[in-house]
Amino acid sequence: MLTCLPGKEAEGRKRARELEKLRLEAERLKIEAEEKDKERQIEIEKLKFEAERLKVENEEKERKRQIEMEKLKLESEEREKAREAAEREKEAERKHQLEMKKLEAEMAAVGPPTAEQATAKAPRLPAFVDEKDDLDAYLLRFEIFAASSQWAEDKWAAHLSALLTGRALEVYSRLPEDEARSYTAVKQALLKRYNLTEEGFRAKFRQNKAEEGESPQQFIVRLTSYVYLERWVELAESSKSYEGLRDLFVKEQFLEACPRDLAVRLREQGPSSLDELAGMAQHYLEAHERELGKKEEEKETIPVRNRTQLGTASGIATCYTCGDPSHFARDCPVSKEARPTGASSIFTSTGGKAGQQATFIVAGQVEGKKVPLLLDTGSTQTLIREDLVDAGKIAEDQEITEKPRLLDCSTAAPPEN
């Protein structure tokens, strides 16, 4: 039995070596499997990243494509607008040429042209340049020229049309035939298109100043002539009589003096007489429950301050009743124990005068003693520390019968409970 032991030991060692070999092989296979799994995960992440990149690129391409499409659409719309504008201009020019030919035919049918008619064919005036010339001044020059040339007024509109360009020509071409032959109708349409209104000429008349190098006589002529005053009166549809000018100036003064919202409403409605103006104003005031001469009370804005700002100069918040920093006035035992119901003329204040910036804390006096006063816009009672008032002046259920007087000599009514 002793001779068998070495063989068994050798066999055991051999088996152990094989087991170790198998264990190492299994460990190697496990490591290889983990490495392959890591590589697979890395590959998956790469694929995800690539997919995300492609998605972002596609979205960017789509965004650029949409921008390009919008750009092309806008360019197409601009070209279409330009084409339509050119067609309108061309159509207006065509109508103008037809009108001129028709006018020439009518003049030819009458007989040989007179000196007046020969002059009318070709006005010696420059064309009106849109966005460069002043329309009102241009029309004034045209009327002076037409009158001096002794043109028949029924031909003024046709002669003016030969001098119009741009928006002005477009306005003329859109008028009905009967209005296009009337200089007054053409003029009103042009003034309306260029916003030359009653209010505009009124403002120019009131605000205009002498120009550099202008003499007093020239300035007066410019104010009183057709340029400002007469244009204001004309557009206001007011007569040039004393009564008409009186009503115009009274209307202006009324609108300047009344509240802004009322003035805006009245200008929108455009009353034609003082009676109509008064009626409209009365209806507006009644609807808003207001009076004409009573100004709306302006609410004073009180600056918001934090508790640190409302405390002492050192920045520590304290009780406004007893000065103790351990609590605030709403929790003060002193104010809870002693709540006087009233006092008579015992507090004065050095608060700022009207118009000065509002503040919460002001200096004042109580019974001749200088004390800080807290202004509380939400308080319904005036509270005073008991030790600041003589005991004989404090009585239960005493009502305030006098108004407190401030140091600036103003008074304030006691709050109503």
TrEMBL record:
Gene3D superfamilies in the record: Acid Proteases (2.40.70.10), DNA breaking-rejoining enzymes (1.10.4020.10), Zinc finger, CCHC-type (4.10.60.10)
What InterPro entries does this protein's entry cite? Answer: Peptidase_aspartic_dom_sf, SCAN_dom, SCAN_sf, Znf_CCHC, Znf_CCHC_sf
Segments carrying the region annotation (Disordered) are 75-96
Q: Where is the SCAN box domain?
A: 202-292
| The entry's keywords | Metal-binding, Zinc, Zinc-finger
| Domain spans labelled CCHC-type | 319-333
Q: Which Pfam families match?
A: SCAN, zf-CCHC
What PROSITE patterns does the record point to? Answer: SCAN_BOX, ZF_CCHC
Which molecular function term from Gene Ontology is one that the record holds?
A: zinc ion binding
Q: Which PANTHER family does this UniProt record tie to the protein?
A: RIBONUCLEASE H, ZINC KNUCKLE DOMAINCONTAINING PROTEIN-RELATED
Its name, as the record gives it, is SAFB-like transcription modulator
Organism annotation: Branchiostoma belcheri (Amphioxus)
Tell me the lineage of the source organism: Eukaryota, Metazoa, Chordata, Cephalochordata, Leptocardii
